[in-house]
Design a protein that fits this description.
The chain has 339 residues and is of the alpha/beta class. The chain is built from 14 helices and twelve strands. The protein folds into two domains: 204 residues, inorganic pyrophosphatase (n-terminal core); 126 residues, Diaminopimelate Epimerase, Chain A, domain 1. Bound molecules: guanosine-5'-monophosphate (5GP) and manganese (II) ion. Manganese (II) ion binds next to loops.
Length: 339
Amino acid sequence: MITDNIFQQFRDLIENSKQISLIAHPNPDGDALGSSLAMYHALHSFKNLRVIVPNSFPSFLEWMPGTDQIMIFDHQFRQAESFIKSSDLIICLDFNTLKRIDRIAPIIKASGAKCVLIDHHLEPDPDFDLAISNIHASSTSELVFDVIEKLGYLPQDIAAFSSCIYVGIMTDTGSFSYSCNHGRPYEITAFLVDKGLDVAHIHNLVYDTFSESRIRLLGHLLNKRMKVIPEYRAAFISLSMADQKKYNYQVGDSEGIVNYALSIQGIRLAAFFTEKPELVRVSLRSKGNLSVNLLARKYYHGGGHKNAAGGNSYNTIRKAEIEFRKILEENKVLLQNES
Ligand code: 5GP
Ligand code: MN
């Protein structure tokens, strides 16, 4: 429950601040960028602020208004560090614990700035000075819209703000197919459409700009690299470093592919493994009551939402596959239950 008192405290923090860092999670997705850029567009006419992301974002989000002012921590370390250090307000968007931004966290702590969370993930860390958290929101962008509207900060020229909010809602709900069984995302969208938002155009910019190699990688993964395990109603897809090289893999190219595994009839748990030099990134998706947040926390040092979570496996990709089969065996009671 986000009380009026929380909104008031947030307003005071913004009005009293001289410099604000807006920080999104690593491997920023449509909602991480959408929520932080929307916040930037709402406040930048009267505040000195920048968006800082830990690492690169996918090229299909590069068109988003405001990406030119984003600092990428991995690439602009000194600049980003100095901006955070001299901020007196830090707003963390679309993640729930400073542990997720490991290398940035000590800089935030050393800055002595007030640290505010705006997020919709389960189990937010109680360590923030102020938390605007609602696990029932479709997206952090939905929350940012509500906060900005409530505080009276909606920009006069709303186009850039609108596009960013909409990208966040659209991408975090799989184009309004999950996490949106409440009216708010539709009300916000209706409001933005009335102000001139072109939803078909934005859908096209995000989803219809695949490179040829990205589409061919998708075909290859579905055809050759997906394993279906019907007895556990599970499936997984593995993307090795060799395949990344062969298909000229770029950041974001595997976004959404895990959902194909989940779209098979009867499958309730899907995993996507991406091999990196020192670890395997794990993306988990589920249907119904099966909580991948719990699985990600228990086995992969991660977390997320009930039906979408992620983490890391400190293994080779082959070992990660074997480990996953063991996890299925260990949790067969959960997996074989109807729901
Ligand atoms: P994805 O599979 O798309 O990378 O992530 C799915 C969801 O899980 C997102 O909401 C994301 O924020 C969350 N998530 C992904 N990786 C991690 C992680 O390493 N730790 C935590 N706590 N959450 C994660
Ligand atoms: Mn989100």
